[in-house]
Amino acid sequence: MSTYTNYAKTALHTTVAGLAVWAGLYLLLTGRGERFNVGGYLLRISPYMWGVYGISFCIGLSVVGAAWGIFIAGSSILGGAVRTPRIATKNLISIIFCEVVAIYGVIMAIVFSAKLGAVSSEGGFSKSDYYTGFSLFWGGLAVGLANLICGLAVGITGGNAAVADAHDQQLFVKILVIEIFGSVIGLFGLIVGLLVTGKAEDFAGVI
What we know:
Number of helices: 7
Order of helices and strands: HHHHHHH
Largest sheet: none
């Protein structure tokens, strides 16, 4: 079955690459190569769109990471508690660590959304507005991806902590230290998001 899956992936990648090359050669040979303009594409999209995309990625990926981590850790805790009921209450700290990941995303989404403001359509957008939109997009994406990986790391470590605690009570604190270091990844993403958007000004439009 895996062989057929590999064949299907290879065929799909080859088809996509072939279509991309064909489209590029068609535009180039027909004298319309300037249509493939990445800069023009970026400028045609409203800065509001980039900002809203960044905020959506920030909170969406953070919540997905938290939910995924809770799913992994919670299933291990419930499974281990069937045989060793004493681990159920103590290992809920893993669920709390996962939930903090979602809180990081909510906080950063609120901070990012504060930079969005109404702009008169008569003058259009200024260069600083585009910079703000791009910085919100990449800052939100960085925060969301960091929280997604953080939720997975905390969930997997928390699930293993529950299993280890059910086997040997002395192992819980040792694995909890590893879990704490995993949860710091989300904090790093929050700091990166603040650094990326630190010099971004509020939307003002062309004055």
